[in-house]
Every structure is written in structure tokens, then in C-alpha cells.
Amino acid sequence: RRSSDLTSMKSIRNEPSQEEIDRFWRQVKQEIKQIPLAFERKQQPALLTGIDVYQVNFQSLYNETIYGYLLVPKNKSQLPIVIDYLGYMNHLQEPFQFAHWALIDCACLVIDNRGQGGRTKDTHPYETTQHEAPFGRGILKKEDFYMKRMIADSLRLLEVAAELPEIDSERVILRGGSQGGGIALIVNALAETPIFATFADVPSHSNISHRIESRTGSYHVMQEYIDTFPDSKETIYYQMAYYDLKNLAAKITGPVFASVGSQDPICPMTDFFVSYHRISTPKQLTVYLNKGHGGGEAKQIRKEMQQIQKLLKRI
Questions:
Q1: Do 122 and 150 touch, CB atoms closer than 8 A?
Q2: How open is the CA angle 149-252-194, to the nearest 5 degrees?
Q3: Which pLDDT score, from 0 to 100, does residue 10 have?
Q4: Are the C-beta atoms of 95 and 69 separated by less than 8 Å?
Q5: What is the pLDDT, as a whole number, of residue 12?
Q6: Burial environment of residue 31 by CB neighbours within 10 A (0 to 12, 13 to 18, 19 or more)
């Protein structure tokens, strides 16, 4: 894209108003509703004794087919469900990676994020920027940015959960790490029904302009673009404000359990604090001192399992 084109797109304001942000997300949700869910589930060979495994797929924004897994404890009904959002460029390999949720009598729903190396593709063309890395796609226009697609897919999982006869729709739990932790919190903020609880481990997508400037994690590709086209900076910062967790955090419902690593160079804890302070619901934050992006690792998963059991009054 020519520098002169970018100059014409520059905004005179650093960020959109909250009203503009809210209106944009209402429009996105309306766009999603126009697409039939077309949800399908197909039972897979037994994984472990006591757990039914299904391959699932459904339609999402731009009619992309989204693929994932559903794990359900056998012979149970009115189950809580953990919707588990994957980290950046992670993809589904084996469903047993998520069997620990069934150990505490929770179903689990997880998908491959589109265009991040798994079965779910990202085929719809972009209007503005193209890039091998997802976070370099469509960055000059909020309607075109990659995250619009990913968040739409993630929101549709709430519709999928509502379709499942085994599930108690009032006990939907969102969780994720890194990219997935930020997405869990954003989905909570955009959900049209209250979320039972949300767990965000070393979460991303907070204080995005600073993330770009400091080249941390998946946002480094945007700064590389700005290095090449300096006139694009104001445009990119303005468009990214629509996706910044800090501008959505006030709408989060239900208890939030978050964790950070004090030495995390990928999703710095100080960037997450900007959003965390705007969450008004009951919340807990665990800081893993001298830990990087791994945070609490397996210890944190175990802690989340125990916290969920307490919320469900099972321990």
C-alpha cells in the first residue's frame, strides 16, 4: 500500500469513543447472527473410560467452517462446560489434551483458531494488508482486521454450547492462556448472557498500542509495518482500539481469575494491569514472580480446576 493512501486514512483522534466501540461490536454480532450456525457433531473412538469425544464443526463469519472437539463425561446431564481458547499459533492435536476438565465433571469445547496452523482455514480475502502472520492481516481497517474473525468464531462457541442438550447454559466457563486468555475476557465482555466464570492465564490483547510500540508477542508485525509505512501509525492505533481489552473490560460479568508472569516478555503483566483495573466484577490475580510467558504452567491449570470445583460447590 502506498504511503499516500495511508495518509488519507489517518485519523485526527487517537482512539474512538466508547459509543463507537460499542456500536461496532453490536454490528459485528448482528453480522454473525445472519449466518446459520449449521452445527454438527460426530462421535469419535473412545478416548478414555468415562469420556465421550466428538468432532464438531459449525459455520462462522464469511461462511468459514470452524473445526474443534467436544468432550463430555459419560452419562451425565446438566453439565457445566469449559470453553477453552487456544494460544497463538497453537492448534488441536489430540483431544486428551483437554481431558482434565472431564475429571472435574465439566464438558469441554475447543476449536482451532482460523488460519493458525490447524484444520480451520482463513480463506476470505482481506481488503487492506496481507501477511503470513494472522496479526498482520487487515490492520488498516477495523472491519477487515483478522481479530474480527477470531472473536466472531469465539463468540459462536456460546451458541454451540446452547445447542448441547447435556449442558447447563447457566454454567458456562471461559478460559484460555495468552491469546486465548485475552479472547476469553473479550468474549465475556461481548456476550449477551452472563458468564459463570472466566479464567485468563498470561492474557494478551491489552493496551495494544503499547504492545505494538514495544513489539511484544503477536503485535510485533504491526510495528514492522509501521517501520515501513510511518504514516500508518495513527490509523493502526485507532483501528486497534476497537479490539483492545481495556476498552471492553468494564462490561465483563461473573468472577474473573487471572494470572501473569512478572517477567513475561510476550504478554507483559503491566499491559494487562491496564485492563484488569477496569474489571468491576469479583476478581483474583495470581502473579508468578520471576516467571516468563509460561506463567504457572501445569500448576496454574491445577489451580483453575480447584477454583472451578469450589465455584460449583464440589469441594
A1: no
A2: 90
A3: 41
A4: yes
A5: 39
A6: middle
Global pTM value: 0.94
Contact assessment for residue 92 and residue 53, using Cβ atoms and an 8 Å cutoff: no
Phi then psi dihedrals of residue 58, to 5 deg: -155, 170
Distance CA 250, CA 312 (A): 25
Q: Can you read off the three cell numbers belonging to residue 297?
A: 504452567
Beta bridge partners of 54: 43, 70
> Taking a C-beta distance cutoff of 8 angstroms, is the pair 201, 185 a contact?
no
User: Can you give the C-alpha Rg of the chain in angstroms?
Assistant: 19
d(CA 257, CA 270): 17
CA distance 217 to 58: 29
Report the run of H or E that residue 111 belongs to, with start and end: strand 107-111
Residue found by looking up cell 496454574 in the block = 300
**Pairing state of beta strands 51-59 and 40-43?**
antiparallel
- Is pLDDT of 81 > 80? yes
pLDDT digits (tens, 9 = 90+) for 123-137: 999 999 999 999 999
Exposed/middle/buried for residue 15 (C-beta within 10 Å: 0-12, 13-18, 19+): middle
Q: What is the mean pLDDT of residues 105-132?
A: 97
3-state secondary structure of 225: helix
Give the C-alpha separation, 315 to 311, whole Å: 9
Residue 77 CB coordination number (10 Å): 10
> Please, which residues bridge with residue 55 across strands?
42, 69
Distance CA 194, CA 85 (A): 18
pLDDT digits (tens, 9 = 90+) for 36-75: 999 999 999 877 789 999 999 999 999 999 999 999 999 8
DSSP reduced 3-state for 4: helix
Helix (H, G, I), strand (E, B) or coil at 135: helix
Q: How far apart are CA 46 and CA 95, in angstroms?
A: 11
Alpha-carbon distance 307 to 255, whole Å?
11
Helix, strand, coil percentages in the chain from 3-state DSSP, rounded to 5: 40, 20, 40
Contact 200, 184 (CB under 8 A): yes
